Structures are given as structure tokens and as C-alpha cells.
Amino acid sequence: MCKMYTNMSIIYSQIVVYILVVVVTSAIVGFLSERPTPTEGIEGFVGTEENIEALNGEMSEKVSNMEDSLHVIKYKKDYENTITYGKDYFDAMKLSSLFDFSSIVKHQNDKEKTEQSMIALAKKLGALHEGSQSLENTQL
């Protein structure tokens, strides 16, 4: 009789735990479903045929405001100097990357390491050249 009582108490305990799990889970789901979803701060825009003219005007105004806030006309000489210094920096970095030839010479007996060094140097020079070209193509 005592053994049956313990089996029944185990079953009752499991039922109570199951009920508690269901109640807690439903409470959590209910709480989470009642939370307001944030609608503010959605980025982007919805473009339709009706609002395309207004959107175009708004974007033109924002670009003008951005140019005004950057004072492009007032600081044009400073911006040009910054671009010139940037191009000089890229050219100096191209020259300094020529020191990477030492690793090519050092590993010239190992074909695989030589190829890896040459590929790395080519990538570096290509990136520096693209950076320099993009600064040259910048128009104020």
C-alpha cells in the first residue's frame, strides 16, 4: 500500500509540474503578445506613383541641405587640399609597398611562397591604385 501511495504521489507531482509549465508558458506568451510593437524608427520609404513627386522634391531638398551643411563652396579649397593629401598618401603607400619585394626575393626558392607574396603585393597595389583613382575622380 505504501508503494502505491508513492507512485500516486509521483503521478500527482508530474501533473502539478505539467500544469505549472502550461500556466507559466501561457503567461509568458500572453505577456509577449501584449507588448506594443515599435512602429517608429522604420528606415526607408515607400515609393508609389502618388508620392513620387513629393519624394523627389524631398530628396532634392535634403541633398541641398547636406551641401549647405558641409559648406562645400566655403571650404572647397580645404576639401581640394584633403583630396590632394589623400592622393599623395596613396602614392606614398604604393612606394612603401615596394619593400614587399624583399619577401618575394627571400622566398624565391619556394615557388608557392613566392606566388603568395606576389599575389598579396598585387592585391595591395590594386587596392591602393583604386583608392587613388577614386580620389582623382572626386568632384566638388
What attributes does this structure have?
140 residues, mainly alpha, 2 domains, 0% strand
SSE layout:
Blueprint: H1 2-34, H2 52-70, H3 76-96, H4 101-106, H5 111-136
pLDDT average, as an integer?
78
Topology as H/E string?
A: HHHHH
Measured as a percent range, the helix fraction is over 70%
Shape descriptor: flat
By DSSP, the count of extended strands is 0
Number of domains: 2
Main pleated sheet:
none
Distance between the termini: 95 Å
Report the C-alpha radius of gyration, rounded. Answer: 34 Å
Strand-residue proportion = under 5%
Uncertain segments are none
Structural class: mainly alpha
Quickly count the helices.
5
Describe the structure.
This protein is mainly alpha-helical and 140 residues long. The chain has 2 domains: 1-31; 71-140. The protein has 5 helices and no strands. The radius of gyration is 34 Å and the shape is flat.
What is the structure about, briefly put?
The chain has 140 residues and is mainly alpha-helical. Helices cover 75% and strands 0% of the residues. The mean pLDDT is 78.
